[in-house]
Amino acid sequence: QVQLVESGGGLVQAGGSLRLSCAASGSIFSINSMGWYRQAPGKERELVATIRNGGSTNYADSVKGRFTISRDNAKNTVFLQMDSLKPEDTAVYYCHARAINFRGYDDYWGQGTQVTVSS
Question: Secondary structure of the chain in the HEC alphabet?
Fold first, then answer.
């Protein structure tokens, strides 16, 4: 089992910045990748950014050049630095971890943190 605890959401004006953090605990040795997803009202959950154990990253086109995902392996924490925020970035942001096991893999989710960008 993996537990994920997010922090860092809030209200910011358009053009501003926020930094989200997600601390993992439990069976962290099994984690293969971590990332962030978001879900806006009335929309499906969508990928924002992921980072693999080797350090490779992947971003949604809508956030490329504005968001940066990183991780601190010593603290089992992943970060999402969000710059040049836009009102359309408003959503609940969820931390995600994929853990590899003998069955294949399991997906774990944080409780979500609200990000609101005002125009």
Answer: CEEEEEECCEEEECCCCEEEEEEEEECHHHEEEEEEEEECCCCCCEEEEEEECCCCEEECCCCCCCEEEEEEHHHCEEEEEECCCCHHHCEEEEEEEEEEECCEEEEEECCCEEEEEEC
- Residue 65: closest CA among 45, 86, 46, 44: 86
pLDDT in tens, 59-99: 999 999 999 999 998 889 999 999 999 999 999 999 999 99
Single-letter code of the amino acid located at 86: K
47/39 Cα distance (integer angstroms): 9
